[in-house]
Amino acid sequence: MAYYYTDVAYELELSAGVWTDVTADVIGVVKSSNGIHGWGHHDRVADTGTITLTLLNESNKYTPNHISCLTGFQAGMHLRMKLEYDADTKYRYYGTVLTDGIRLSNKIGLAVTEITAVDYIEQMTNHELWLPAYTQNKKLEEIVALVIANMPIAPLATSYGTGQDTFAGVFDTVKSKTFALAEVGKAVQTEIGYTYLNQGATAEVLVTEGRDDRSGLALSQNSNAEDFIFDNSMKHYSVTHGKEYFNAIKVIAYPRKIDASATTVLFNLESPIAIDPGDTVTFVGRYVDPNMEAETVCGIDMVTPLVANTHFKFNTADDGSGTDISADLTITPTFGTNGTEWEATNGNANLGYIWFLQSVGKGVYIYRPVEYNVEDATLVAADGRRLLTIDLKYQENPLVAQDVATVMLDLYKTKRTAVENVTFVANRSEFLLRAFKDIQIGDKIQVKITQIGTDEEYFVHSLDWTGKPGGFFEFTLGLKEASMDARTFWEWGEVGYSEWGSTTIWGF
User: Fold this and answer.
1) Which of 24, 27, 334, 394 has its CB 3.0 to 4.6 Å from that of 167, i.e. a possible disulfide?
2) Residue-wise pLDDT tens digits, 130-183
3) How would you classify residue 99: left for phi > 0, otherwise alpha for psi between -120 and 50, otherwise beta?
4) What CATH number matches the domain at 124-210, 3.40.1010.10, 3.55.50.10, 3.40.50.300, 2.60.40.10?
5) For the segment 380-394, what is each residue's pLDDT rounded down to a tens digit?
6) Taking the domains of the chain in order of start, what are their residue ranges?
7) If you average pLDDT over every residue of the chain, what do you get?
């Protein structure tokens, strides 16, 4: 007996806030991929989620710029997919059609249009952080919120967990080509948390988890209040052994140095900039270490207002030998963590040259990183060195790096046998039908496979699925052993973390 959803809908937002159901024109197989594809130590930030579907293109209904095309059918439109069962509706995908995500072709004599959409992670991948302000004492969720605020488009919703670490300096590792997802990745890796997207009653939710957010969680449930226990109900499964085995750990921390006073020249104009009468020019000057020693440099407490002939000089000659017209230059700085954006207007009747310009403030410098190494000598002698390197870009305390190394060696020196992914046919039972509708990245589930003698708890890391003609759905869950995350560490003086007998693992 097969089970089916009450409703399956693929919809396009052809105008703002107005969704058009195109389900009747969907043909062939729909494919979607979402979440964190992997369960290793560094697999903590989601990949770009995608969906691809094919529409029957009769009468050029889905031919962009054609006179018969649906109004608003074009790259950049939003696409969503939703499921309904037991009067409960959930979204299973939400994204934006790529700029090159519409392709027309002819298949078995039919004119078709193929659509590919990507989720918000793609926005984060492509957005270059633009002069974010240096800030201090922020947790993971606060850093992610600041990154989102730097972007032109925000996710529909957010769900922020609680980071355990408070980072003394934020955005001081940003360079001229640092992208939003990369910066989030630095914070996630240092926290040893997670960032990913989910769908549910809301079509798009950006989620962060601190490293202790999974500790002590019960099994997740579907909309019918049933625990997610998958008891030999899978179509396929994949099991790995020893995949994430390491007997040596190297952890890297990055001590910072901050200037005592706001007197350091962090940017110095190296060649003149010409400005025609009445014109305005905008340019960016990036900060450098005056001693040319630091790996990265950012500026804080920048000096303003600017003083003519002290911070800048404007002249009718590019070598400063002409007439000083600095009084006629209107120059406005926008200070960012790694540079200054200058807007300069020439109010003089003559061509002028900025031939001297400085950004002055306190420098924040990241010098040579500090490494802490630990290994299990017995295992190294038996297997050779299997090294895991953990790069904590936001961590400036080498002692924390030492604690991380100790904990991670204890975690990864075991050769684990673990279920890596499981595949189900949603239509085989009501439980599986609800599971595909309701399950989320980050959910805790139980997997029983009698054939290999396993009955373990896992966290869902990825959800890939295919929709087939006739309302059939197959979905694959990428998994991570719950025991690798859902642990409560022992910490001095912390209620709920310091009771003897509750744990034997040091925290950090």
Assistant:
1) 394
2) 888 888 899 999 999 999 999 999 999 999 999 999 998 888 877 777 899 999
3) alpha
4) 3.55.50.10
5) 999 999 999 999 999
6) 1-118+214-242+416-508, 124-210, 249-255+369-412, 257-366
7) 93
